[in-house]
Inverse folding.
């Protein structure tokens, strides 16, 4: 299927700013779905609220645009009630780890089979540049005019600790890597998390003097390195990219089928 | 007759009603005094092939049932005061996106954690106005276990008919009290299945285009029609819009689909109203004491009647007016500082004749409590 057959063309042009990283994520996501050859009817996209969450409106899947931070909770209802569906949940960093932090932990703990894509632009885009739980100490934001003293989360560490069975990280610069990760995450049977570092030139870039979108994108190349690289040993400040966790553990919906059998007096 | 007879708590009667109605998905978080519904569902639902999940909180519980409803299942959650407060945002979402679902609130004393193990009817206005923004809502209540069962079935039927969340307001007293429940045979009570679209694959399906009778046919997630669901104002395809006309039309539709059906949705019981001089208006556990007073006074020759409301929202003003106009006085009996009494005053021709008999100390309102108010109105000594 041609890539454009996956999008709802009549809803373009999209609402993202020129140079926003979210468009790259959409592109990678669609390429992953195309490679998987999934039928559009077997995909449900559930998103929260934020610039990132608007992805769900642009794709021609079953789409559920929910409440800020609650996407994973809605998605849990969709998945558990109809496990044969592929559930993809794009989220902003605020969506996923501030207001939605608890849902994130518990979806990972349950290992319920869906794909969480965390678009980490280190800022609240939609509400106008307030700091997010990933902005980190020293970051500038409209609610941190004297620089943030809030320490940052690490999406990968949280996902690992909470029990996600597929955890990966890439950036909007590494679009093909993102496609591969999203592809594998969708195939993965369990809760999968793909963190994608994206640029918000409008707020994060401007506030933190990181230049325009092209400079911000190039920066992702400079500040990241593949997991376990030599560069990382030489410069511990570098952020690692790659697949951090990939393991098989019982998936929640499959386990629930066993509960049904037990309740019915079967095995 | 082989009707199953059980001796159960009201909460169990609610669970039995939900199973009878065909609930297929339940998400919840425990809270006194509603937990028996959640526990009962965990026990019983899987044996029917349905799914139960204990979520991390009430916010996620209501979100999960909305998600599950979209895949075509009958869904429910149950909670109590503080949990109900947490559900308000999700409830608003279900109203806006027109998602059938049932939310049970077994009321306890509030505000805050208040009196967890004591009865109250303090959430009547939260049910009506807890959600931000203009909206309408359906809220039912019940006073006996047989009613609880039937109103639970009704809640599902109304939710599925009108694509709307329905709140079932029970109270701790009814929830925890034990009494007899006769479970109707399958087929005895009518069950409503949601209307599904007959539009074929490849033909444009509009999830938010009401038919002439006001109903909106649905398509299950995973089926051949892909559409968008959002809590934003949206067009007939479900896509966000801020177009003033569409916004206006949608809010009118959401409100009118319920407010225009007040009389269709009104469930109530009348006791001795034909020749009554004075009327008690009550609902839920309070109606039990009210009925006791009415029967007792009748034995003594006093012409007292009772209107027991089972639908609280939309408020059945016509019914109240019909039953109360022209009477010497109307006494609203409720366990709060006066929530339905204002609605009754608005409905009747002589609001000055409407009085309140209430109790808000965590104790159950008793017949003597009501009698005291009656005596005061009658100008007699207690
Ligand atoms: C309960 C609630 N609180 C706050 C908001 C306001 N709000 C909308 S989007 C957003 C944050 C967006 O940031 P993020 O999730 O990181 O996504 P981005 O826009 O950066 O892609 C906030 C706070 C809301 N919609 N709902
Ligand atoms: S505000 Fe930032 S995140 Fe939002 S669309 Fe613009 S660039 Fe993207």
């Amino acid at each position: 299927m041609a890539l454009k057959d996956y999008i709802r063309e009549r809803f373009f042009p999209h609402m993202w700013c020129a140079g926003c990283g979210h468009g790259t994520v959409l592109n990678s996501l669609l390429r992953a779905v195309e490679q998987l050859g999934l039928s559009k009817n077997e995909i449900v996209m559930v998103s929260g609220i934020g610039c990132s969450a608007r992805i769900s409106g642009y794709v021609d899947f079953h789409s559920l645009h929910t409440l800020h931070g609650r996407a994973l909770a809605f998605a849990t209802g969709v998945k558990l009630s109809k496990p044969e569906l592929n559930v993809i949940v794009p989220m902003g960093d605020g969506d996923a780890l501030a207001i939605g932090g608890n849902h994130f932990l518990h979806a990972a703990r349950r290992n319920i089979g869906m794909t969480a894509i965390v678009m980490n632009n280190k800022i609240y885009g939609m509400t106008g540049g307030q700091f997010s739980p990933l902005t980190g100490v020293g970051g500038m934001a409209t609610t941190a005019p004297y620089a943030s003293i809030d320490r940052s989360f690490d999406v990968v560490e949280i996902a690992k600790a909470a029990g996600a069975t597929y955890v990966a990280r890439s950036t909007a610069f590494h679009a093909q890597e993102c496609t591969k990760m999203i592809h594998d995450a969708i195939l993965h049977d369990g809760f999968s998390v793909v963190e994608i570092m994206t640029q918000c030139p409008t707020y994060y870039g401007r506030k933190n003097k990181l230049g325009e979108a092209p400079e911000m994108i190039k920066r992702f190349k400079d500040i990241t390195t593949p997991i376990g690289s030599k560069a990382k040993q030489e410069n511990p400040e570098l952020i690692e990219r790659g697949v951090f966790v990939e393991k098989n553990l019982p998936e929640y919906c499959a386990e629930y089928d066993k509960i049904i059998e037990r309740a019915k007096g079967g095995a | 007759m082989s009707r199953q007879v059980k001796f159960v708590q009201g909460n169990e009667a609610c669970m039995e009603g939900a199973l009878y109605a065909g609930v297929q998905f339940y998400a919840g978080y425990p809270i006194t005094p509603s937990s028996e519904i959640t526990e009962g569902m965990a026990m019983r639902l899987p044996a029917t092939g349905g799914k139960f999940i204990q979520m991390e909180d009430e916010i996620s519980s209501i979100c999960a049932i909305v998600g599950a409803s979209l895949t075509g299942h009958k869904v429910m959650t149950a909670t109590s005061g503080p949990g109900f407060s947490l559900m308000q945002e999700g409830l608003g979402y279900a109203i806006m996106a027109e998602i059938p679902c049932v939310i049970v609130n077994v009321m306890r004393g509030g505000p805050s954690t208040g009196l967890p193990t004591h009865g109250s009817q303090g959430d009547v206005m939260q049910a009506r106005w807890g959600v931000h923004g203009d909206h309408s809502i359906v809220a039912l209540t019940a006073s006996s276990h047989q009613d609880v069962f039937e109103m639970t079935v009704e809640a599902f039927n109304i939710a599925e008919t009108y694509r709307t969340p329905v709140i079932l307001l029970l109270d701790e007293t009814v929830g925890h009290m034990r009494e007899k429940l006769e479970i109707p045979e399958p087929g005895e009570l009518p069950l409503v299945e949601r209307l599904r679209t007959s539009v074929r694959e490849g033909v444009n399906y509009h999830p938010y285009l009401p038919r002439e009778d006001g109903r909106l046919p649905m398509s299950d997630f995973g089926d051949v029609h892909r559409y968008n669901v959002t809590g934003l104002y949206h067009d007939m395809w479900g896509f966000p819009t801020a177009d003033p006309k569409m916004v206006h039309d949608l809010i009118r539709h959401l409100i009118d689909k319920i407010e225009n059906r007040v009389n269709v949705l009104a469930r109530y019981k009348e006791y001795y109203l034909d020749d009554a001089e004075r009327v008690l208006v009550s609902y839920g556990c309070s109606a039990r004491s009210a009925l006791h007073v009415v029967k007792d006074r009748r034995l003594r020759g006093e012409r007292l009647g009772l209107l027991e409301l089972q639908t609280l929202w939309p408020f059945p003003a016509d019914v109240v007016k019909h039953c109360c106009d022209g009477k010497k006085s109307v006494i609203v009996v409720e366990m709060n500082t006066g929530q339905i009494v204002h609605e009754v005053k608005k409905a009747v021709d002589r609001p000055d004749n409407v009085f309140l008999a209430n109790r808000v100390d965590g104790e159950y309102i008793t017949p003597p409590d009501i009698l005291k108010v009656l005596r005061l109105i009658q100008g007699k000594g207690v």
Observations:
- Chain B touches chain A at residues 24-25, 27, 43, 46-47, 49, 51, 53, 55-57, 59-61, 63-73, 75, 89-90, 93, 220-224, 226-232, 239-240 (CB under 8 Å).
- The mean pLDDT of chain B is 97.
- Residues A 16-17, 20, 22, 51, 121, 125-126, 200-203 surround iron/sulfur cluster (ligand 2) (CB under 6 Å).
